[in-house]
Amino acid sequence: MNKPQTLASYEVRLNRVVDHIYSHLDEDLRLEDLAEVACLSPYHWHRIYTALRGETVTATIRRLRLARAADRLANSAEPVDAVAGRAGYEAADAFVKAFKEAYGKTPTAYRSTGSHASFQKATQAQDATGFPVEVVTLPPLRCAAVSHAGAYMHIDKAMARLFSALSAQRLPLVQPTMMGVFFDDPDLVAVEHLRSQACTPIADNAVIAPPLEAAVLRGSAYARLRYTGPYADMKGAYRWLLGAWLPQSNREADDAPVFEAYLNSPVDVPPTQLRTDIHLPLRDRA
User: What global pTM score does this model have?
Assistant: First the structure.
């Protein structure tokens, strides 16, 4: 007799699909093959995915491919035609149209005038006032977390697992905020060895079980940069915060990881409207 499917088991199966998509973004991803990865009915599985994830699997693939393309445009010199091909577009015109619909600019215009370019210009000019930063003092936050190893741009894989486990364990949340904690410098550590966590605050008395881990975000002073724009451009935001704002702030960075608080979701808004609070830990004043 087949075991009844629970919400948690469906989420585990759909997480396998997302992992497969990330690992094969350069390949032809067919819905029937993804149904096999999910081990669900080929007839119904896609409707289950859409209902639980809030977007079709086709939209997920398109969104992830374009996000990776944006990262390459912002942070490499890879030719636009090559970026288009690796995003699954054989025709350059189709890539330009899809990218402009998502990011509001053509790929060429985005490369030269996206928000990453604004941060780069401000960093080179040592303009420490061009973007909104405030120093805030935060209390310690107990969180439920899921660890992630690999590219920071792929932390939403851990986010999906976190959502699944929170739902299965019915944990009481302090606030419905999704956060990413980043432990390594991506300019020094190989991509495959980068360590991060997806986490969200939970009540102090909440009992968590695997695959969730308990984590505590340090309570103290942070420089909070209110960032709006694509995740692909955030490398430039970090370089400005550390290379222009911090040296002129009369503050020192503390020996603790940075974290990001995600105020909306790429499923719900276009990349240009994503809002993220970047938190840089600061040493307390003597």
Answer: 0.89
